[in-house]
UniProtKB/TrEMBL annotation:
This is Uncharacterized protein. The keyword Endoplasmic reticulum does not apply. CDD domains: S1-P1_nuclease. Pfam families: S1-P1_nuclease (PF02265). InterPro entries: PLipase_C/P1_nuclease_dom_sf (IPR008947), S1/P1nuclease (IPR003154). The keyword Zinc does not apply.
Length: 311
């Protein structure tokens, strides 16, 4: 969709927070590096027109965690179920996602939320706040769906698995959301965001992720959103049996260092997947990209002006 078309159409995080603050911002920041230039301008225009915006030049990084805060506000409680899909499988023996079985909450789940808000962006409302809200949801949910415990019902997505992390009581879900990310990739600040984004972008362009990108985008058609989001959930849920819940956890015992060491590469790869898919998704909705493609508009330096990010 061309920039002028959009303007005309517009009339001009906790134990349930997948990836936490830094993870979601990194998903968005990785995507930002691969957006077509006109798409970046369009997204800025949409977010700047949002009546809730307080920044002069907002980017998708600035709003990457908005959906978590909104879901815990009185007016946003109806969106809590949109952040996950409860796969009622049998880990670690069997992992699978069945949309008709697992997406039964009021209003749906992360799969149907992605499809719904994608459609709202393809056919935008003249209400600028509604269109901005749809964009904020899409940015966030494409991150949520790559967090393994957001695709699993067992023990409430790991919230019922009590462990210790650095000697303190913690829930396995929370350790995946924020604990391990903070341990390895640093604090939720501009330096951590910059460093982690550069690491992932380099792997996508020149490293171990380069050959994997076509597989990550094997289903990435915005007009087939339910099917693609379901496939992404299946891809993520497979990690539950392959690794996440393969370990036997003893109540309130320290999480083994070997578990952390093996989890870190998985976390980074999943965040990279989210960024790549988000870039492809937004380039199709607002640009000229075709399904399965990843724009190579990455600049010599990061596009994001880090000083504009709210931490």
């Amino acid at each position: 969709m061309l920039f002028s078309t959009v303007v005309a159409a517009l009339g001009l995080a906790s134990s349930a927070h997948a990836w936490g603050q830094l993870g979601h911002k990194t998903v968005a920041n990785v995507a930002l590096q691969f957006l077509q230039p006109g798409v970046r301008d369009t997204l800025t225009a949409i977010l700047a027109a949002d009546g809730h915006n307080r920044l002069p030049n907002p980017s998708i990084v600035d709003v990457a965690t908005w959906a978590d805060g909104f879901s815990h506000s009185p007016e946003g409680t109806w969106t809590k179920g949109f952040h996950y899909i409860d796969a009622k499988d049998d880990p670690p023996l069997r992992c699978d996602v069945d949309l008709s079985r697992d997406c039964r909450g009021p209003g749906g789940c992360v799969v149907t939320a992605i499809a719904n808000y994608t459609d709202q962006l393809i056919h935008p409302s003249r209400n600028v706040d509604e269109t901005a809200q749809a964009l904020k949801f899409v940015v966030h949910f494409l991150g949520d769906i790559t967090q393994p415990l957001h695709t699993e019902n067992f023990m409430h997505g790991g919230n019922g698995i009590n462990v210790k992390w650095h000697g303190k009581k913690a829930k396995l879900h929370g350790v995946w959301d924020t604990g391990m990310i903070a341990e390895f990739f640093g604090s939720d600040n501009a330096t951590g965001l910059d460093s982690w984004t550069k690491r992932i972008v380099n792997e996508i362009k020149n490293g171990s992720y380069k050959d994997a990108v076509p597989e990550w985008l094997s289903c990435s058609d915005i007009n087939d959103a339910v099917n693609c989001a379901t496939q992404w959930a299946v891809d993520t849920n497979k990690l539950i049996c392959d690794f996440v819940l393969k370990t036997t956890f003893h109540k309130n015992e320290e999480l083994p260092k070997s578990y952390y060491d093996d989890a870190i590469p998985i976390i980074q790869r999943q965040v990279a997947k989210g960024g790549v898919r988000l870039a492809s998704w937004l380039n199709q909705i607002f640009g000229t990209a075709e399904p399965g493609s990843l724009s190579l508009y990455e600049q010599d330096r990061l596009v994001l002006q880090l000083s504009e990010v709210e931490f």
